[in-house]
Amino acid sequence: MQTSRIQLALNVSDIEAAVRFYTDLFGVEPAKQRAGYANFEIAEPPLKLVLFEHPGATSALNHLGVEVGSTTEVVAAAERFAAAGLSHRMMESDRCCHAVQDKVWVDAPDVPLGGWEVYTVLADDTADDAASAPSQCCASNSSADATPCCAGPSPTAS
Fold this sequence. Notes:
The chain has two helices and eight strands.
């Protein structure tokens, strides 16, 4: 990945219908698709669109993020958050959304679900593909919109 891009993660009621719609809307096929999950890497505008199948979610928004090209950029974001006194938490080699990621979550006021993630994808995670089941963080459940997917433990002021 050459540049950063905004990530928009949405809860959808029907993953197949949503994939068809967003494929038509942006003119690209999903970069990754698993049971109950799909993501699109859209060049223009630079966007990572992530879809989670959560039919009972009370909000269409799952979470917001910024995908960056390296762990160095994730660490730099965490250092920037610390210098600004923002509450945040680092997660290294986190298995989430069918990928291994380094990330930092930062609390954000007035954002549904309370935060943004800055992350980089280290590798594809196919560990749960054999069972054709979504990863634990992406699994549909009644608390799906209580916290963002892969949000990890509650933050501590850093």
